[in-house]
Every structure is written in structure tokens, then in C-alpha cells.
Design brief:
By secondary structure, the chain is an alpha+beta fold. It has helices spanning about 15-35, 45-55, 60-65, 85-90, 135-155, 170-185, 190-195, 205, 210-215, 230-245, 290, 305-315, 340-355, 365-375, 385-390, 415-424, and strands at about 35-40, 45, 65-70, 75-80, 100-110, 125-130, 160-165, 250, 265-270, 280-285, 300-305, 330-335, 360, 380-385, 395-400, 405-410. The structure holds histidyl-adenosine monophosphate (HAM).
Length: about 425
């Protein structure tokens, strides 16, 4: 039986890889302009890290983690997200004793045992950023502005930025009780999931997508009305910066996020045009997470973008021609007789040393078939190597665009090829 990639995973073949590289470069370059540096962390971590950070009652931890026991009987988990690993690394390497704030970005695969559909996979990729060491609302605003800038550079300007404040532990605890009191008499109308979770995690009911839940809680008390003075001031400062910077947003009372570590600012970016999985990114502030994971009391703020959803969006919502970024071949060495193969290999090497993308045939094609193959590869110049050339010590260059042929001496080869390549 043929073995296929596991459900919810997929291969990125070279034609698609080029599209990924285009998007990744925009993200990386933009993050670096904003002062972020790359961190790479392991794909798996101790299970406890995610239980403590993402939260034991979240969908991610209760249903979606790829957890396994290794040969030494440790419980390990394929990372479902990147923030927890950054926090762990920040503490483990004592990064907090250096200059603050610390600004990191990362890009890589994440794993969630979710129901696969368009825009939702079991192995997916996130580009994320985290800032440690600043409690300033300007840090929240900078993170959101970086996200907005990435969207703009990807030409995805029709995004909707939803923001809310989920308060600090004090005002949120009081609010949660208020919400439980409000929901309890309505609980029969909630979906099964919400009936089970509302008393433990009532905020999740607010962003439940089930129609019956949305209808049941209409007119619910908002967290905004329960924010303490400090949290309200923080939120208002973030909004002021966004307004002054012309970043448009929607204040969304229902936005609470599916991970437990958030405090104060929470946000999500949606592209309604890409279908049911319209959230292309999300993030927020997490003031207590570093301490919760055993480090000092240092706040953080960040976001992650879902690469698959962004790629889908660039392909379907913009006029960017992603096929344009395929890397091709510049020069093809066509060998007219097998006995000149060693010479062809030498020329190939010489051209590659000069940073010219050069290729030759390796499967014994005839002279005619080599020309066809060169054309298929998109070669712009073909170097013809036959008896006449070798005997007289020159090369014939064919410009594949206009069919013109010139004869050049061996020492002028690179120069002449570059001249043709530069003109086109
Ligand atoms: P998140 O909202 O769980 O946040 O994920 C961020 C983005 O990852 C989502 O908006 C979505 O685009 C993408 N994503 C999530 N699950 C899947 C999936 N199964 N398939 C495809 N794409 C998916 C976080 O992960 C937080 N760590 C973000 C953060 C960073 N908060 C602070 N710092």
C-alpha cells in the first residue's frame, strides 16, 4: 500500500516553496526593520510548559496536543504555538538580566490535533514575534503596527483588526464571576462545549462561533465595563497610538482569544475573503506568563501569523503573481558529443563560481533534446560545445530570447554571458 503524508499535513514542493520564501522574506525583513532578531527553539518541549502557559482548560491543551512519552518516560509535546517556548528560552538563558526590551521573531511549524479543512492543518506554520520587558502600551501598539505593516507589504490591505482588553488578573476575576452569574440562567441554550466550560472559563462563551450561544448571550456584560482604572488607561493609550498612526481597528467586546495567558490588550487580524478560517493572526499582552513559568515578573507582548492562511490570502485576494518568484536556470551547457562531457563539467563549475545559475544534461539527451530541455528550464543562454568549438578553442553562445548566436573565446565566456543576462 502506498504511504501518504499524515492527515492534516502536506508537502511544500519546490514550486510552492518559492512562494513561501517570498512571504517569509517580507516578514523577516519587516521584523528586522522594527528591531526584532530571530530565535529558533526546539519543535518539542516538556508537556508541562504548555499546560502551565497556554492553560489546562483550553482546547489546545485538552484536545489538540501531540503528546508522547519518550524512551526515558518523559512526557513531551510537539509545540502547538511559539510563545511558551520563547518564554522558556528567555528564562532558561537568563536573557532578562541583559538589555530590555528583548525583541524576538520566529518562524516554523506548529502542531495541533484539529479537524483539518481549508486553512486548518495539523502541522501548520507560524511567523511570530515576542517583546519582553516593557509594560508600556506603546510596546503593544508597536507590535500591532508591525503586524499591520506586514499585512500592507503583503498587499493584504483589506484586513480587519479586532482589539479588546481582557484586563488584569484582578479585574478579570471579578468580571468572570459577573459573567458566570449572567450565563447560569441561560445555560440550557448554550452548545454542549460551552455548557461544560462556562463555569470554569466563561470568557470562551463570548467567542463561541455557535449561533445558539451567540444569541443566548446577546446583551452580555462587557469586560470593558469591568476594567479597573489602570487597565482602562492602558487600553485607551494603545487605541490612541493606533488612531494617531492611522491603523484602523474594531473594538470587539467578544474577542477573548483561545489561550489563557493574555492580560490587557488582545487582538486578532481577520481576512473575511479567505473563508471560514478567516483569522490570519492573533496576539496580545501576557503580563504574568514569565513568572508563571518560573521566571521573574517580566511582562511580554506578541503575535503570531498563520502562514498557510496568509499564503492563501496572497494567492486569492491580491494581484501578486507568486509564480514570478520561481528560481530558474540562466545558462545551459549543451554537449554535442559525449567525449566533451569533462570539458562541459569544467565550464559548468567555472560559471557557478561566477554566481551564474548554470545547468547541463545528465540523462544522455540528444543535441536536439538538450535544446528543448534548456528551453523548458527557462535558460536564457545556451553554451554549445561541439567539435568545432573544442578544436578552434571558442564557444558558441545562443541567446535563447532572440536566437542570435555569437562565438566567444574561452577567457571571455563569463563576461559575454553576463552581458546577455544583464541586457534582458
Ligand atoms: P493563535 O491565535 O492560537 O495564537 O494562532 C495564531 C495564528 O495561527 C492563527 O490566527 C491562525 O492564522 C494560525 N493557526 C492556528 N491554528 C492553526 C491551524 N490548525 N492551521 C492553520 N493555521 C493555524 C498563538 O498561537 C499565540 N502564540 C500568538 C501570540 C504570540 N500571542 C502572543 N504572542
Amino acid at each position: 500500500m502506498q504511504i501518504k503524508a499524515p492527515r492534516g499535513t502536506y508537502d511544500i514542493l519546490p514550486n510552492d516553496s518559492a512562494k513561501w520564501q517570498y512571504i517569509e522574506k517580507i516578514m523577516k525583513d519587516t521584523a528586522e526593520i522594527y528591531g526584532y532578531r530571530e530565535i529558533r527553539t526546539p519543535i518539542f518541549e516538556h508537556t508541562e510548559l504548555f499546560e502551565r502557559s497556554v492553560g489546562e482548560s483550553t482546547d489546545i491543551v485538552t484536545k489538540e496536543m501531540y503528546t508522547f512519552v519518550d524512551k526515558a518516560r518523559r512526557s513531551l509535546t510537539l509545540r502547538p504555538e511559539g510563545t511558551a517556548s520563547c518564554v522558556r528560552a528567555f528564562i532558561e538563558h537568563g536573557v532578562y538580566s541583559g538589555l530590555m526590551p528583548v525583541k524576538w521573531y520566529y518562524n516554523g511549524p506548529m502542531f495541533r490535533y484539529d479537524r483539518p479543512q481549508t486553512g486548518r492543518y495539523r502541522q501548520f506554520h507560524q511567523f511570530g514575534v515576542e517583546v519582553f520587558g516593557s509594560s508600556s502600551p506603546y510596546a503593544d501598539a508597536e507590535v500591532i503596527m508591525l503586524l499591520a505593516e506586514i499585512m500592507t507589504r503583503l498587499k493584504l490591505t483589506d484586513y480587519e483588526l479586532h482589539i479588546n482588553s481582557v484586563g488584569c488578573s484582578l479585574c478579570r476575576n471579578a468580571y468572570q464571576q459577573k459573567l458566570i452569574d449572567y450565563i447560569t440562567p441561560l445555560r440550557a441554550a448554550l452548545c454542549r462545549d460551552c455548557q461544560l466550560r462556562y463555569s470554569k472559563n466563561p470568557l470562551r462563551v463570548l467567542d463561541c462561533k455557535t449561533k445558539s450561544c451567540q444569541e443566548a448571550i446577546e446583551g452580555f456584560p462587557t469586560i470593558y465595563d469591568s476594567l479597573c482604572a489602570e487597565c482602562r488607561e492602558h487600553y485607551s493609550a494603545v487605541r490612541d497610538v493606533l488612531e494617531h498612526s492611522n491603523v484602523s481597528y474594531i473594538h470587539d467586546d467578544n474577542l477573548v482569544r483561545g489561550l489563557d495567558y493574555y492580560t490587557n490588550t488582545a487582538f486578532e487580524v481577520h481576512l473575511p475573503g479567505i473563508g471560514a478560517q478567516s483569522a490570519v493572526g492573533g496576539g496580545g499582552r501576557y503580563s504574568g506568563l514569565v513568572a508563571e513559568c518560573g521566571g521573574p515578573d517580566i511582562p511580554g507582548v506578541g503575535f503570531a501569523l498563520g502562514m498557510e492562511r496568509l499564503l492563501l490570502a496572497v494567492e486569492t485576494l491580491t494581484d501578486v503573481d507568486l509564480n514570478r518568484f520561481q528560481s530558474g536556470v540562466d545558462v545551459f551547457i549543451a554537449v554535442m558529443d559525449d567525449k566533451y562531457e569533462p570539458q562541459a563539467v569544467r565550464i559548468l563549475h567555472q560559471l557557478r563560481q561566477a554566481d551564474i545559475k548554470a545547468e547541463k544534461d545528465y540523462v544522455g539527451r540528444s543535441a536536439r533534446a538538450q535544446m528543448k530541455y534548456a528551453d523548458k528550464l527557462g535558460a536564457r543562454v545556451v553554451v554549445l560545445l561541439g567539435e568545432e568549438e573544442v578544436l578552434k578553442g571558442f564557444f558558441t553562445l545562443r541567446n535563447m530570447q532572440n536566437g542570435e548566436q555569437v562565438q566567444v573565446k574561452s577567457q571571455d565566456l563569463v563576461h559575454n554571458i553576463n552581458r546577455i543576462l544583464l541586457v534582458d
